[in-house]
Fold:
Amino acid sequence: MALAAERQERILAAVRKHGMVRLADLVEQLGVTPVTVRRDVTLLADRGLVQRVHGGIALPHRAQTPRTHEGAPGTYGPMATHALVGMVVPSVEYYWPPVIQGAHTAVAAARGRLVMRASRWEDPAEDRRQVSALLERGVQALLVAPTTAGRAAMELLRWLRSLTVPVVLVERRPPQELATLELDAVTTAHALGAGLAVRHLVTLGHHRIALITTHQSPTSKALRAGWQDAVDVLGLDSHNGLDLEVPSYGSPGWAQAYTDVLEWCRREEVRSLLVHSDREAIGLIERGRELGIGVPHDLAIVTYDDEIGAASDPPLTAVRPQKHRLGVLAAELALAKVAEVGEEWPVHRLELWPNVVVRESCGSVAAPDPL
Structure:
């Protein structure tokens, strides 16, 4: 009995020190069989002294203490220092690098380390696999951009909520079916950004503004909602049929599809477009030049994203999401929660507004780009 009590005290000491301990490490440290460790863990869990997590154990949420030393100042209060933060994103290309860089900046400023893994679009099983790998790595907080549509995605979100480490969703919110799920989220107000673009074009005298999106973008739904809401609020004429979907720039059939859109604009006398994203806007300009449709003289274009808008010919007026800042704030929120584990925190749902960067493609006077 004394030996069992000694083992269990060593297990508790390890969990208090590290926050989360893998069962495999306990087997090695204690020099006993996996069956013995599992028996000790079961007894501790039944007494409410530890909580099982994937591949290991942690302190119960109410009992956890800060796992790092002095706090670093942050937007949400003192942040944990020297923390290991995990991040799972659906891609490391295009939209996501500035978000990842922002998170890295915040974690590095707190003398911590960010460990990033790439999942896949619309693959909840892969999201879970990558999160599980980071938990086994011993991360103390998670930034995750998971799939949120479908039954499997809802199960994934419920599982994320059950974890004992702080989880912050990045550019994602739980769907309406899980509206009360207690998960923090930092997102961009994409629908509002579409509305800003419509309003800018209306001030330039446009009243028929087509929306051009690609099927693969998860942002398209929010842009469509914001575009339609702005059309309705501003009392513009019916925009039925002005919501068009095109292939991604450079994919099979893109050139003919873009030509068809531009010919349609000429027939229907549509002289302004909101396009998601920069690549597609540049492709439309390229095809328009071959058809004798000039931008902005014949067609005004506002792009949504501003990854490469300034380098276009002509430079693209763009709605610019604050991606780097979004990554910073998501990481700071996670680190603040690590520093005060056990405190009663309200759920945070932060939404950043994008801004409009005026250049030549819409026909208004371009503002100088900041150096």
About this structure: Residues 62-69 have pLDDT under 50 and may be disordered.
